[in-house]
Structures are given as C-alpha cells and as structure tokens.
C-alpha cells in the first residue's frame, strides 16, 4: 500500500535497486537459533548471525516471522536484509537495551542503545520490504507518567532526558551507511537518528508512530551533526518533527561544535507531524549547505517550514535552499521562532533538589547572549504552493541579530491571514502572491530592506 500510494504521487521509481542484494548469499538468523513466534527473545541469536556475517562481509536474513529482540549491533560490511513477511519487534524491557555513550536531544550522555545500531562502523546496509517495530507504547506511557510528576516541579526540560527510551535506529559515528525500504513502526523515542556520521543514504521508508496512541518525541528522521547525507522518498506520520536538522544544544552543543552540512532531503510526504521540514531547535553547531525539495505536507501537520532555536543555543544557519513544496491545510506556512518552547528550552534546577545527574549540570551551564543567539542568513525559498493555510508568516528573531538575506521566489500562498515578519534584513520577494481573506500583505516590523512583498491585487 505504501509503495502504491507513493507511486500515485510520483515519488518513487518502480524498482528498488537495493533489493537486488536479496540474491546474495545470506547467513540465516534462524540457523543461529532465532525463532519468529513474536514471543521468544532472539537478541543473542540474531547478534550471533550478525557476527558470523561480519567475518565475510555478508548478509543476514530471516525466514518469515515476527522476531522479538533487544538491541542489535550491526558490524562493518554487513547487510541486514528484512524481506517481506519479516518483522523485528522491539523488546518492551528497557534492560534489553544496554546503555552506551551517545548524544540525545543535543546533549552527550549515556543512554540506552537503539533497537538497531550502526555504532562506529563502515559500509553497513539495512534493506528490504520487512518491518522494524519498536512496540513503543510502554515507553510512551512511562514518559507521560514522568511528565505528570515533573511539570508541576518546573522540570519539564528534564523529562526528555530522565525518561530513558530506546530509539528505533541509530547511525552513530559511522560512514557509508544505507537504510532503504523497511517499514518503521512505533518507535519508543526517535525513529532514525543519524549522529556524527557521513555518507549516509536513507530512502523509501514508511514511518508510522501513531499506531495505538501518539508516541511522544517520535521524530521521523533526525540528521544530527552529520554531513553528506541524502534523504529521499520518506513517508512519515509521527508525533514530533518529521524531517529535522540538529546540531547540539546550548553549552554542550557549543563545546562539541559540529555542524550539519551537505544534506539533501527530497521527494517526501509528511502526513502528520509538528512540521514538514524543521531546523533545530538544537542549532548550536550550525547548519549549512542544506537542500530541501519536493515535499508534500498535509493536514494535521501545523507548520510547513520551521526554524526554531532558543537564546541559549547559538549556531550559524546559512546557505539553505528550500523549493518545490506543496502544503495542504497547514496552519502556518513559514515560521521562525528563536524563543521556542521556553519550559523545555531553558534549564534551571529548582531549589531544594540534591544529587542531580551530571547532565543536569551540563544543561544548566550559562551561555552568554553573544554566543546564545542563533544567526540565520542566506536562505532561499522558491516554488511553494500552500492551500488552506491559516497564516502565511510567523517570523521573529532578535533586533541585534536579524534574519539576513532571505530570498523568496514564486510563492502562491492561500491563507486566512498574512501574519507578521519581524527582525528581517534584506529580504526579497519575487513572483509572490499572498492571497488572504482581507487582501493584506504580511505585516513587516522592526525590519529593513524587505522588498517585493505586496498585497493581493484588487479584483
């Protein structure tokens, strides 16, 4: 169904070249004791098959079935092939996800491994038409339970770090990795996290994280302080960012100082998420040379294009090219919010709390205003069509660090209201129509050099 739906939208070819690997000689996990009954815990058996395949640079495959497992660690040269009828089903016991050093939501700390891990490896593939299902509702429930305790105490910012939940797939400090084809379901936390990695290809993924509930923080694809990444033909429904660029949070992210760059995202469908394409809020290392094109963003996704940060994040965001987007019934077409979600973004330890985790102290390290302001410039947005939007623009930054040199070309925005643009400098609009109920162009405030943004011509 997924591939037929995408074919109707003209987003995928009729052939999946990665599946040609199916003809290669495979190590069957079943020969190492894996049982696809949906109940048996198969972590050791599947890992044994992976280790055996690593000796020859081979492929791991499975007979049809549902294989319950904890964390698996792919090795250099190995292909994990999940054929149609094969499901890897995540354990609901956190003890089956060993903790190891990583980065989570912009902070380096020790955290449970993902269900599928490419951790400091090279030349790894995960392919096929099978399914990777995190069975994550138990982790969603634990998060909401902790939030009920933390929010009244002023600890909203800490909940995402204290409630440990496994990601579905993590590619960490690795290179030359392909993830293409599998259906990804019910991640306990983020779905695909690419961190400190390069030469990564993500393609033809169907992500569904709202089955049996709405999984909190179940981002679709997060590209985090990584480079030379291609993301294409992703069809996603989740309960947070769908396709997101990240680069560290606050003092820790500024210490690491690793940007995300040379990333291409194209030909994706966002059906349900917090935004179609998101930059941030973890902006500390910065982003540059990012190309986004061919996205279809559908209701109930509230925002089409989102830049978000906070006044403790910092980072330089530049040379961003966004084009050829179709937005249907989103609330806001284009939003820049550099004071995003204060209860989450700004960490303060309440008085009277002792024996706090080390990462709490890391998160509460002060950042000077000069380092904490994110700087956005040289953003190009073209060929955008929005139908049924509520607001065209919701844009604000800092008077002392305006948003510089944004260029908009060939925008046709059907919206109830034009909205507001503040703290902009040298913005140009060409061939842009903002068709609002009152016929008024967006309000421009505390800005300079904004040209070409005109109201709808009189009838």
CATH-level-4 superfamily name: Single-stranded right-handed beta-helix, Pectin lyase-like
The amount of beta strand, in percent, is over 45%
**CATH architectural label:** 3 Solenoid
End-to-end separation? 44 Å
- According to DSSP, the number of beta strands is 31
Radius of gyration: 22 Å
Helix coverage percent? 10-25%
Instruction: Examine the coordinates and then state which fold CATH places here, giving the name of the CATH topology.
Output: Pectate Lyase C-like
Number of domains: 1
Quote the average pLDDT.
Answer: 93
CATH class bucket: Mainly Beta
The major pleated sheet works out as:
29 strands, parallel
Q: Structural class from helices and strands? A: mainly beta
Topology:
Elements: H1 2-8, E1 26-28, E2 37-41, H2 43-54, E3 59-61, E4 65-69, E5 72-73, E6 79-81, E7 86-90, E8 99-104, E9 107-112, E10 116-119, E11 122-127, E12 131-133, H3 137-150, H4 156-162, E13 169-172, E14 175-180, E15 183-185, E16 192-195, E17 198-208, E18 221-224, E19 227-237, E20 243-246, H5 250-256, E21 260-272, E22 277-279, E23 287-298, E24 303-308, E25 316-328, E26 332-337, H6 342-345, H7 358-363, H8 369-372, E27 375-396, E28 403-422, E29 424-435, E30 443-445, E31 448-451
Helix pairs in contact: 3-4
């Amino acid at each position: 169904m997924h591939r037929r739906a995408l074919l109707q939208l003209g987003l995928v070819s009729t052939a999946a070249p990665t599946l040609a690997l199916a003809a290669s000689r495979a190590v069957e996990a079943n020969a190492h004791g894996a049982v696809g009954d949906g109940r048996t815990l198969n972590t050791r058996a599947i890992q044994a098959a992976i280790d055996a395949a690593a000796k020859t640079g081979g492929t791991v495959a499975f007979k049809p079935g549902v294989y319950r497992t904890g964390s698996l660690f792919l090795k250099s040269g190995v292909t994990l092939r999940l054929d149609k009828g094969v499901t890897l089903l995540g354990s609901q016991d956190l003890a089956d996800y060993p903790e190891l050093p990583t980065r989570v939501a912009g902070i380096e700390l020790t955290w449970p491994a993902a269900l599928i891990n490419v951790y400091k490896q090279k030349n790894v593939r995960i392919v096929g038409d099978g399914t990777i299902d995190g069975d994550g509702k138990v982790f969603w429930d634990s998060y909401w339970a902790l939030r009920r305790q933390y929010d009244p105490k002023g600890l909203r910012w800490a909940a995402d770090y204290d409630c440990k939940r496994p990601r579905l797939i993590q590619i960490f400090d690795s290179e030359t990795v392909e993830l293409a084809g599998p259906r990804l379901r019910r991640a306990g936390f983020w779905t695909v996290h690419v961190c400190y990695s390069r030469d990564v290809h993500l393609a033809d993924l169907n992500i569904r994280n709202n089955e049996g509930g709405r999984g909190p923080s179940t981002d679709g694809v997060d590209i985090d302080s990584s480079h030379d990444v291609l993301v294409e033909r992703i069809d996603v429904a989740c309960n947070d960012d769908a396709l997101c660029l990240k680069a560290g949070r606050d003092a820790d992210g500024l210490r690491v100082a690793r940007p995300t760059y040379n990333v291409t995202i194209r030909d994706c469908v966002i059906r349900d998420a917090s935004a179609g394409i998101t930059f941030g809020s973890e902006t500390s290392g910065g982003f540059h040379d990012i190309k986004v094109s061919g996205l279809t963003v559908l209701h109930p996704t509230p925002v089409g294009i989102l830049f978000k940060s906070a006044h403790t994040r910092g980072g330089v965001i530049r040379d961003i090219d966004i084009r050829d987007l179709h937005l249907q019934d989103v609330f806001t077409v284009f939003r820049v919010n550099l004071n995003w979600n204060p209860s989450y973004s700004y960490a303060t330890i309440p008085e009277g709390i002792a024996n706090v985790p080390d990462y709490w102290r890391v998160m509460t390290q002060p950042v000077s205003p000069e380092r904490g302001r994110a700087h956005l410039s040289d953003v190009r947005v073209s060929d955008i069509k929005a139908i049924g939007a509520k607001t065209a623009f919701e844009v604000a930054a800092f008077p002392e660090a305006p948003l510089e040199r944004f260029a908009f070309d060939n925008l046709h925005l059907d919206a109830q209201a034009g909205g507001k643009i503040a703290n902009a400098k040298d913005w140009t609009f060409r061939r842009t129509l903002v068709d609002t109920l009152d016929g008024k162009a967006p309000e421009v405030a505390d800005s300079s050099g904004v040209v070409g943004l005109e109201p709808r011509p009189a009838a």
